[in-house]
Structures
1.
Amino acid sequence: MSEQNDRWGIPGTYVFDLQLSRRGYAINRMCNSLKLEENRAAFVADEEAYMSRYGLDDEQKQAVRERDWLRLTQLGGNLFFFLKLAATVGHGLYQIGAQMRGESYETFMKTRQVPGAV
Amino acid sequence: MSEQNDRWGIPGTYVFDLQLSRRGYAINRMCNSLKLEENRAAFVADEEAYMSRYGLDDEQKQAVRERDWLRLTQLGGNLFFFLKLAATVGHGLYQIGAQMRGESYETFMKTRQVPGAV
Amino acid sequence: MATVVAGIGSSHVPSIGRAYDQKKQNDPAWKPLFDGYEPVKRWLAEEVKADVVILVYNDHGTEFFLDRYPTFALGVADSYRVADEGYGRRPLPDFPGHADLSVHLANQLLADEFDLTLCQEMELDHGFLTAMPLLWSHDDDDWPVKVVPLLVNVIQHPLPSGKRCYKLGQALRRAIESFPEDLRVAVVGTGGLSHQLNGERFGFINEEWDRQWLRDIQDKPEALAELSHQEVMTAAGAEGGEVIMWLVMRGALTPQVREVHQFYYAPMTTGISVLALENT
Amino acid sequence: MATVVAGIGSSHVPSIGRAYDQKKQNDPAWKPLFDGYEPVKRWLAEEVKADVVILVYNDHGTEFFLDRYPTFALGVADSYRVADEGYGRRPLPDFPGHADLSVHLANQLLADEFDLTLCQEMELDHGFLTAMPLLWSHDDDDWPVKVVPLLVNVIQHPLPSGKRCYKLGQALRRAIESFPEDLRVAVVGTGGLSHQLNGERFGFINEEWDRQWLRDIQDKPEALAELSHQEVMTAAGAEGGEVIMWLVMRGALTPQVREVHQFYYAPMTTGISVLALENT
Ligand SMILES: [Fe+3]
Ligand SMILES: [Fe+3]
């Protein structure tokens, strides 16, 4: 839990404020477009072209390539939007969460009270 | 100046309030779609089909057919939206105004201080 | 005159919707949850008999995008569709609106200096959907109540303050009580309790804080309304900050309330609760 | 610290934009209008030297539709495009935003209980565009000032009250003055004066009321802020009701102001005015 959004000072937390939202606007706009099946298909067909079309910068593109959800968060991605990207590439919420925590999915699930309630 | 929106009591005036806006939602939604050239072409090609697609009711359709801007206003059309319809069918603002007043364009223009400022 | 006949706080979690649709009511992991809502559902059906529900919720990247993000948005439509959040539309009937009440609320709340965004079209995501079938029985194509959706921005800071939300609830009550028709109105505040879906602290839950919230929202709502977002998010997780929506519900009730039912369960990543209150 | 260095009221009328683009500055019908703005343009360039303009305007069915209509919407972007209102984009450069100031204003105004819609994308129609080239010289691709657009719903009732608009102006001033950077900020309120584009009363103008407004906005803004929409629309025409946007500008100034310049002209269907004020 070393990293955080310094304006807020809550460990392990990147508060989605206007500054971060502005930073990540291209990401979130791209992710939002993936609501439509035809756009998901276009993304899958050519990820690089799709990212360029939405104006992601190099850091953001790299985070998408690596499916690095923590980095994407730090760069202004908002989970409620990038869940659409995650679904497109086959990642689920708890997989994302485990990765953000730096744990395996199995280790993360062991920290839950009733892991059957998914 | 006999007619008005009774909730407001201002003669010759149809205040665009939520009730009127809800009444005219289909009209305004259709008119708003005419921002796009392809939609204007579709409207011109088949007015009836276009109106049906946007769910106008019979009174509203009739007002559109007759280019009756006053009636359209009474049925919830908002000028800022139906100006797009007017432009599509070749009517201008002052023509609309003259018609609403029940005057010819020429008579209306005579009531203006500097009719050259159009 | 319309009156507020129930105030309900209820979490909204997508997995609850999936469990409901997949009929997991008797699945060991889910039974406690469905059983926990049951007494409230019965109370609403047998005693409260609301005509309309004003449901306070937030959208989760479904209908509202960051190009134009409202602070408060009120539905003023005759009906509201169930949104597709990317996994297909849930098999729930669309919701009948109570447009006359919506229009009245819009007029009153604007006059009371709340700067609402007014929505003639609005599809509803799990922020709205989760609580509804747990609280009201529906058949294949209708609901026993009409609805008025009231959206709060809890996604992109600056959010409205807790105090502003509480004041909105108080104004809502004045607006409801000035509606001329006899209507029984339930107000539901959704969201929370503690959870975090963000950063290295993903999965954070604070059960102690949640249980305190469930007491204080009854007896000390004004103290809760004074908390800063930073205080709430530190204690309840970044996404737990959405509990401010409960303050809208609480503001719509009388200063003293009676608890009808309370339930709490934290199986996975969210402190899930339902709290039913009535005016005294 | 940022300071408010000018307050300007200015009508917005599409035909002015057309006359400007068609270079009708010396056309007998238009010359009075352009001459009327000239002293204000000179004052702004030579004395005021603003860094940023907060321009209060309304959209006219261009960017905002009735599916989701905000009461107040604030631009928080780095730049804003010139909208196409259906006759092609006007040959004006796009506008550079001052995003840092926008973000600061958003945070302060939300904390001050104004429930804004925040816009990361916003194209600007004649509500915004009309005044800009009459007040600031531009070249082919840039403006000498940055902008922050502030949109007010004056189209679909319930509108915010005049009082709410005046209070928004007062809060805007507090927010501007708490911005740490030294910035010279001009606030422009647009719209009006009397006109009506609706019903049998289309073309209604009330020059006497307009001239009174130009006096009272200086000396009795609080009295103007108390007027109901019905009173204003009865006297100034249905679309004249948009003068409440001038109250936002006036609220951002000191209680006493000094008039720098005033101009009024009512050639066709709108009482067109520019009024330049400064703090005392
Ligand atoms: Fe939520
Ligand atoms: Fe206007």
2.
Amino acid sequence: MIEVNNITKKFGRKQVLKGVTFTAEKGEITCLIGINGVGKTTILNAIMALTPIKKGEILIDGEKLKPKTFNHITFIPDAITVLPQMTITESMQFMKDYYTTWNEERAQELLSFFKLNPEDKIASLSKGNTAKANLLLGLALDVDYILMDEPFSGIDMFSREQIANVFTSHLIEDRGVIITTHEIGDIEHLIDKVVLLDDGVVKKHFYTEEVREAEGKSVIDVMREEYQG
Amino acid sequence: MKINFNRREPVYVQVVRHFKQQIAMNMLEPGQEIPSRRELAGELKINPNTVQRAYKEMEEQGLIYTERNLPSKITRNEQVLQVVREELIMDAVDQFVTTVQSVQVPLDEIVTIIKEKYEQTNADKGEEDHD
Amino acid sequence: MERYWKLMFTSCLFVFGIGFFYLHDTFAEKELPEYTWEKQKGNEEVLEDVLVQAYIQDGSYIGETIQIAGEKRKYLSQLSFLERLTGAMDNLKIKQLQQKYRGFMRGKEESTYNFYEDKRMLAYANVSSEWDGSQFKQSNFALEVETVSKRDDETTSFFIKLPNQDQYDYMDVGEVTVLGDKLYVLTQNDMLVDDESQSEMRLYTIDLTNEKLISEQRLFSDKEENVKGDREVTLLHDTDELQASSYIAVMTRNLDEDDQTKQLRLFDIEKQEEWSVDLPKKMLEQEVVAHMGDETFYFIYEQKGKLSVTPYQIAEQQLDDPIEIPISDAIDVNTMKYTKIIHDKLYLLYDMNSYMGREGNAPQIKGNPPLMYVIDLKAKALRYEGELTPKNKAAKNALFMIESMYENEQ
Amino acid sequence: MKSYFRLTEFELGRFFKFYLVLIGLTIVSQIIGVIAVSKEYMQEANEAIYQDGLSKQAFMDQRGLISLLDWTNSIWFLAPIALCVVTLLIYMFFIWYRDWLGKNTFIYRLLMLPTQRIHLFFAKATTIFIMVLGLVALQVFLIYIAGIVLEWMVPNEFMQTMGVSEVSVASQYVNTILPATFTEFVLYYGTGFMFVCIFFTAILIERSYRWKGLLFAIGYVAVATAVFMSLIFLSMEWGLFSLYPLEWLILQIIIGIIVTASSIFLSYYLLTKKITV
């Protein structure tokens, strides 16, 4: 379980996070929703200790993040983070060199699943393929938690579909996933849990099925209520 | 398998209903293996946990059964299957009646229209089969 | 391993390159110029007391400094960084004092002129000043005095603000002497008088018990009222001598075209008297070596094949009979020489490749080894005669330039 | 430890092409230089002897013998060194900033490696440092080779032969990069390493606090330099106390180690707690 406890963050004078609290369980897909600039990426960065938080704490399976934790949690940012001049093979080798949890078999599987050519340079890949390669590098790790920042934004429909397929596949099974999006549409039925962010706080925190069952509302209905009401 | 999900209704409920329809329509035969939770999730592009929930619900209702580690199968229990069929018909009729009543059409007229429509649809189906 | 080839490549480049550079001398037969004393007469033991420092130029751009003491040689290029840092070739007298009085010597000027030593104490005096940016000259002159008693290691130190300081532009300590409980500091003071620079010696008398300045006296100046034009004033003392006598001796020479008279003048600190030593003019033209500890002057004069050393006792105010020694015919009165009195022996080293008074590009004659004569001043006899000859090819090809001669303290 | 070596190799690899270009340029320029310098000298000699009718000896007396020093003072020798120095100085900053400002923000990947982040610091510092030392070592070989080339080019009577270490003693420029004794070498480059650490820390301060950090960073460099220089100021310039040379050296080394260690410690803290992508 990833526990985010009351974290605050300022950028200059702007208070981006004003005490955000939520949890993300293993085996569930938690979705951080909010309009752009609400601090979704900042939360993911904070979980990965890529940006300092002013207050609050973040625990991963009850512990603070340590260097070794990176073998058990991976973050797939919205843009690929390997050097453009590397080929896919080289970037896979790079990951393999440092991560004990790198699963080469799964990497090869993903390679064929996404139909990527391993000899291609990262810089020469299309947007969709870059996103897939990015996903590949994260998913080929045998980690407990996967964080994804806007995995669907700015890519073509077919790639979106392929990526969406990942969420229902064994690649995600039993892992804890946190994804961020500013547009729920496509993935409404893929997620377990929604964390609605607005103005630096968590507005609402719910399981999608529970809301549908108890209130007969879609996620968008809830969002509309929360943001407009 | 393709379902157009309603966003406001729990997905698992819709999945269960879908299975019931399939059973009632004999698309799924008694004793037939159903897809694994992951397969179905992938096919329907929904969360595997939701499928899990749906399967659990179906199991409780006796629609499917699981033996040891084998894949789940559609029940062979005729009684249950009968209930499903009836439930489905009743659901459809309920819905129909509610709609029709609001238009305030006499029952006789409705029955006639239903008859004609039913026969014509069957005839159309027959023609299609010939092609 | 091949996965780390770039790291390997760069590290190997570094290790081999730097290794080659710093171990090169060990592998390469680099020949140091070697010299040896060739005895002609006497006993070479006396050479162990003297340290000859010379600069060797072998035609390349790199010179080498060498120190020769008896059989021992020290080459500047062969010193380690730490030896250089700690001044392995520096003034030995000061080094010795630093070892003995580490705390006392800390931060002190490394010049023997500032020190006085006897059985009772070690005394130090220095002039401190501050740069006055508004007037573009040194100001705030003060005398810094520090003594350490040898009996109980007790140190006293005090500052004395100097009187008449507006007159001076610069001050430098020439000599420090202690007589009884009084400390005498002789300074060379530079000043501007009517826009003309002038230099004079001043003697400051300090009461050590009360830590007070008793008097300030003007002693010798390069401008005297009865002298036409300027005169040159040279303090006669030995650099290695820490125990000065109660006399201050200077050689003066008038710089007027018509009047170039030389005078040997003395000031008796105890009697507070200044007078001119009465000597024949031709004696004054000779080189004077002052042995102030012994209160004796030695007049040195070379003639063809003969050297005469004439002692003059200050107390008796009279010339003794000259000591006469046969020397090489190659030496004449103009041959460049270095003198030093160590343990009552006069060391005379003649640089056979250069001459005094010759200016410009005199052709450098290589390969004439320096000649050394050691004369026992008490026994009035020659103790050693010999030359410093090049021993190997490197030395033969090099030019050997004597820099100075010190007492060897090691 | 393993990841430190991997990262170092990786960092080296990212600049290695440029590094080889620098090495190549230095070799080419300096070898051309020794040929150019000796040709020029021989031309002068020929003119003097055949046209102006000077004797060989007279020419040699007038012009002096040619030696490697003529070469080390030429632009051919100095320009590539200056280029390497400037390039590596710039790269000292670039080695960090490229990870943030590059096309794919690689710093995400680097900071998420399952290893102590200070290894990044060490890997980058080692990279800069080992490249500098590699170039210095290259210079040793080049001086040696230039000596051989000079011998080919110029008749030996016109030549003053010099070994590699003699060149370093005689040439001020060479002496700055290759001091006479190994102790000095260690001290020079130890100081160099300390300044690399100081600048790296300054970069990390800027990267952690951005605009505000820029001021802190400049302040940090100033303070670290002041602390390192404090002995020189306190004892030599202001004369507050005096030290014997050996004491000074030991204290200076201790201060250097303290400054370096605190720099590394501060960087460790910044990388684990304050760094931001």
3.
Amino acid sequence: MIILRPAALSDISNLERLAHESGPMVSTLPEKRSHLLNKVEQSIVSFEQDVDCAGEESYLFVLEETLTGQVLGTGAVNALAGNREPFYSFRNDIKVHSSRQLNVHSRIHALTLNHDLSDHSQLCSFYIVPALAETDYPTLITLGRLLFMTIFPLRFANEWMAVLPGIADESGRAPFWEHVGRKFFGIDYNQVEYYNSTRNSTFISEMMPYHPLYVALIDEEAQAVMGLVHQNAALQCSLLSDQGFEADKHVEIFDAGPILTAQRNALSLCQKVQQVKLTTITDHVNANSLQTFLIGLAEGNSFKACLVQGGLQGNQLQLSEYNIDQLNLSSEHRVFCIKL
Amino acid sequence: MIILRPAALSDISNLERLAHESGPMVSTLPEKRSHLLNKVEQSIVSFEQDVDCAGEESYLFVLEETLTGQVLGTGAVNALAGNREPFYSFRNDIKVHSSRQLNVHSRIHALTLNHDLSDHSQLCSFYIVPALAETDYPTLITLGRLLFMTIFPLRFANEWMAVLPGIADESGRAPFWEHVGRKFFGIDYNQVEYYNSTRNSTFISEMMPYHPLYVALIDEEAQAVMGLVHQNAALQCSLLSDQGFEADKHVEIFDAGPILTAQRNALSLCQKVQQVKLTTITDHVNANSLQTFLIGLAEGNSFKACLVQGGLQGNQLQLSEYNIDQLNLSSEHRVFCIKL
Amino acid sequence: MMFIRPIQKEDLAALLQLAQKTGTGFTSLPHNEAHLEQRIDRMIATWEGGNTLADQGYLFALVDSETNTLVGVSGIEVAIGLNDPWYDFHVGTQVHASKELGIYRQMKKLSLSNDHTGNSELCTLFLDPDYRKDKNGQLLSKCRLLFLAAFKDKFPKRIIAEMRGVSDENGRSPFWESLGRHFFTLDFDQADYLTGIGSKSFIAELMPKHAFYVDFLTPSAQQVIAEVHPNTLPARRILESEGMRYEGYVDIFDAGPTLEAYTDDLRIVKKSRMRQVTIVESALLGEQPLLIGNEKYQDFRAIICNSQVDAAHIYLSQAEADALAVVSGEQLRVVPLFEKESTL
Amino acid sequence: MMFIRPIQKEDLAALLQLAQKTGTGFTSLPHNEAHLEQRIDRMIATWEGGNTLADQGYLFALVDSETNTLVGVSGIEVAIGLNDPWYDFHVGTQVHASKELGIYRQMKKLSLSNDHTGNSELCTLFLDPDYRKDKNGQLLSKCRLLFLAAFKDKFPKRIIAEMRGVSDENGRSPFWESLGRHFFTLDFDQADYLTGIGSKSFIAELMPKHAFYVDFLTPSAQQVIAEVHPNTLPARRILESEGMRYEGYVDIFDAGPTLEAYTDDLRIVKKSRMRQVTIVESALLGEQPLLIGNEKYQDFRAIICNSQVDAAHIYLSQAEADALAVVSGEQLRVVPLFEKESTL
């Protein structure tokens, strides 16, 4: 069985391997062991703490094959995108320039460095091994985290967001970076993504413009990729969009990848999730009538999620005995489900 | 009976009187006859047009005592706040100033001139004669317009807003204007409000700063009134707030009065409104069980609203025969109601 | 003989004819009769003392005394930007540096500015192509500085001159193509014409209000910032030799440089001296060409000639004195025409 | 006799003692041994040719030859803003005008700028109060310009000097109280100290990044923009008499003016001349005080005296020649000490 569960210290080696595989696509999953260790430790502390207001917590999940203990993917949530420091993005503002005599109101687009999203909760560090890309498990990582956030509302803000990777080629050349960021930094995209994952964000305020950047003056190759998602993240993007996330007017500052945002209450998952009791499937249930459910198991502050086949009747979710065994339920567990 | 109905050309003299009474508090109800005439004519055209996308329409309603034909109040809706030209406001942005060596992230507030709200539908020109201030009729003017907007969704944007008057004393001295606008214009608040109601908004881009204004540098008397509503509009403010309108981060540019915004679908009125059939109260209904309803009558593109006592059973709204007579119903009328 | 005098009402026809000979990039003498007539009227009103500061301006005519024809004009606006705002771009430096990353970047940025509001402006210099010889260009340009030296109290303490920027043979400005075009749908020619008839501020309203980085312009646009059109190079050299300098401001359309100076720093203001007229039968040639002007405000005249001059006198022929509208014994303001010449 | 020489490693103790005598508002000579030692080392490395442009600087010592004590220092930074960004506020003009409303408003605004990046800076002038007499202040200030005239190729083409702004007897700056305090929780004293030890850019990071209007400052803050502290008035007058000018830039903390000039425009650069040393038994007094310096880069010396001078020679006593580290027949750079004096 494959489950989504909080990362543990014993996952470090596996995470290191995944971080290496994932490369620069996942800037919030650093390759450096010490940084990974920090991230896992911070996650453990975050889960342990009782929280009644989103703060510096960051929750890291891993996708584990429970028979072999293999780690096959990751996904994290930051309680606040900008916890100890601002979370920067470019906001695509429209400025109207008016001339009375010429009777013109031109609409001029300009990118403004801002940190409007600092108070949003942030989904990040999504990665799954390529072999599972076509399965339901990307869905597990993404919706599993949303389910976690739904069940523990006090730990998160009301507004959520996810930064998706923008366009970059295999050599790590990102057109938006080449025509924008490079002018200010003079370094490669990979390099700045590494700084971004390992340094605090002060360097952004030091190096990036506080003047709005007029979009019309940005090279067309870079304009063309603004708000476009990297093909590797297309699935992520559609999963989140289906839930109600929308690409607003923010883009990522280095590669101009889309930033999706949503109000918690507007998400379909939040509206449809229900608490259930698990029961064993009775004989007379037809296997064909079984449906796929995402279930989340909360016990105290801990949480895990997995996908199961079952049948829902009222607040009873019927699963196979085998599945129920695997879940290792205790009487303390609260179980939540949502039909996929 | 007192009803809310579209303004007609015959209302001009009455409107002129109201505009004179209302004074500078209602900047979108100009005193000048020719401007009023324009406004009424534009409203008539707007109602007559078939509209499937919010545009330059502006709808003006009057509150009429039907027995005497007296006009007792006004309320308007602009399909788009900035139809032919931008709608300007100040956005209260937070800028983070970071210093690595001092390990400081200061949060600096700054007001930025913007026209983010141009694509919102706007409630405006609210006025009611003082004698009715304590009655249910202010509610009729405000909720009646919201009902109109709900019933004709294609005529409006999904996001609505209302600019409420900010703090000014009886002599027309507005502290925010004295410490901010006057520096740029060198004229009195009443004067600029008059320009604002009669000229196109180009003068704002000519005279107002495009740099953010640091709030800390604004005189404290002016800071203190930012986002505060004038006492005369307190009722308006609470009516809209009850419906789900919220004061976001925008304030009006001259007096810093609050700007309330809402998503249509989030408004309680939109969620609760229902289409009904009117029937006559049967004898056995107890008068004590009657409740107050806001009803809206739509016939083609026209619309009127009033308050009635009635009883709702399923989709049947039972009214007194007297009331039903007064409504002058035709078979073309669609009737909507909401319990207050 | 060539001499300078104030423009007159009767000059309108000649001025209109002259305006026809200008091309793209010469914004301040549009071929537009109403505009030119208004301009002449405004200049005359200034000389007659009837204008407020915002409307004061002078226009000088270069006249060939043989034929009594007007062959060139040059002007001074006394205080710019007091009616319509005066715009240019300030070329500033912005440093982005991060000690931690070990990165230091120095970037040029352009910001819309009204900093020259209230300065004087040297403007509208145009000389009939047939007369582009014999130091006529020098006279037309420098007579303004001589006038300024004579009537300094009528001018603010700073003076500027906008130099025409680079454009190609089709009138395309690389700077406009890279910047202005994105903010405005006009061609450079049209924008240029609107500017000439005083509509520059309308256009400026549509230009970028926030500072932007030079690095975001095309390379060809970057190259022409603060560069003049090849045809304007001589005019630039003349003004620079007189003490005007590029100080980091450029035109918002073509990025031509704004030259500027404190009037007190102008060579002609510092070095010009008063000499008494002595009329001689046959004037001897002195050692260097001199710029000579009278001190008559409403009947200002200026000429260039190699007169003999000593510590107190200047020796002129009758024709020269006539051109200068002076008689023996009157005072003239005299300065070597060129910077390199020795002082008086 | 008082003379100027390069700072030396052995001067540390004396410099530290001197630093103790400075007060608030004197940011560049903090009483901090490590900082001062580092400063001396950097200066010496510059004279020895070992520094990159960003780190080059000169510090001159004023020495009383009677007692061989250091009684004052003055410095030049060669190129500012190449390590940490150099910040000041540019005082610009913004015009808001509406033809339709008939309103025209001219407003001053301040914008954070790095425009002086790469310029030279006159800095760190401090003279022991006991020695504030006998033109010692003139020597200390002007010796730097003489050095610059002698070794012009080692400097960029523009030079600036920041003048201390207005503060009251308690060290409170009205400008800081009205602006900086809102963006920063430090007192002016502390901000000032951090600036002195090179942390100015840290503070600038917290200052307003967008232009703001002078009208929004308190009246007392508005009044002190570009004004100097009364104690700094003499220093300002000295530099202005040498050709430096306020050109619209002020300090981000106290709004003291930045004076600036092209080095080529400095009086001492333009007017200094070379003269050959002749040693005389008893030196006759000349008609005016002269600033005299040698041309030895690593052993630069300068003095003030009323020497006799002719078209080719300068006549010095042995003591004067010794102070200048020259012997008979060597060349010295000579200029009248004051602007008003006649040229050589």
